[in-house]
Design a protein that fits this description.
Helix content is 72%, strand content 0%. It is mainly alpha-helical and 258 residues long. 23% of the residues are buried.
């Protein structure tokens, strides 16, 4: 896959010196996209077609609702609801037919097989109905942006010695984004560059996680009254940093203050 290279946001994110530059970029794009979907784009035909088809996950419904643009939110949900109803009708027909087939299965045959004749069809309908509530246009858009930024990070590591040095001195990335970078690394890098990138990424992660473990231990020790007078050091906020490092940003201060 070819990616558009936009180096400035990636450089800016690394300069934040946070736990994960890709988390900072992901969160920035998430907030921009939530605002965009409730703005003028709500009336764009292409956007409405995608929203009607995919809708939003529960997490992004909460963010959209928090914007307090009830009209824009309702307009999108109205057309998405109508599209969902059209998709749901044949699935409910299948479920009802499967249930009828299962209920008509003779008791002996049901006992031998452990289930009715329509069990597989009923499960298939359930799986398809479940998918209707798990697709999200915002998740897909944000993932596309993040993969582009990840590719740009690898491109910068390959072509910019100053960036390579800054990345090696950074705190690395969160674990989910570490996996993504390793997946993409062989496509963007080769030979010694690939070996150096994995080595630098590992060193940055090990240094970050080792310090984080000490900070988190210090945080827990502060709850012992005998340590009440000891300084916090870097342990304050270590719980949030640890969760964000292991799962991707989800707690505490915004990773990208801009």
């Amino acid at each position: 896959m070819r990616y558009h290279i936009d180096t400035i946001p990636v450089w800016d994110a690394v300069k934040l010196e946070g736990e994960c530059p890709l988390c900072a970029l992901r969160r920035r794009n998430e907030l921009i996209d939530v605002d965009r979907f409730l703005g003028a784009s709500v009336m764009e035909p292409d956007t409405r077609i995608q929203v009607n088809d995919k809708g939003f996950c529960a997490h992004h419904q909460v963010l959209l609702y928090a914007q307090k643009n009830r009209l824009g939110h309702a307009l999108m949900m109205h057309t998405h609801l109508k599209e969902t109803m059209k998709k749901l009708e044949p699935l409910m027909d299948s479920a009802q037919a499967a249930a009828g087939k299962s209920s008509a299965t003779p008791a002996l045959k049901r006992w031998v097989k452990g289930k009715g004749e329509g069990a597989a069809d009923l499960k298939d309908a359930a799986d398809k109905i479940r998918r209707l509530s798990t697709t999200c246009i915002l998740c897909d858009t944000i993932e596309e942006h993040t993969r582009r930024y990840a590719y740009t990070l690898l491109h910068l590591y390959k072509t910019d010695s100053a960036f390579r040095k800054a990345f090696a001195a950074s705190k690395g990335v969160c674990l989910p984004d570490m996996a993504m970078l390793l997946d993409m690394a062989e496509e963007a890098l080769s030979g010694q560059e690939l070996a150096d990138f994995v080595k630098d990424l590992r060193a940055a992660m090990e240094n970050s996680l080792t310090k984080m473990e000490k900070d988190l231990e210090g945080f827990t020790l502060k709850f012992d009254y005998r340590n009440a007078d000891k300084p916090w050091g870097d342990s304050r906020g270590s719980l949030e940093r640890t969760v964000n490092k292991l799962q991707g940003w989800c707690l505490g201060e915004e990773p990208n203050p801009k």
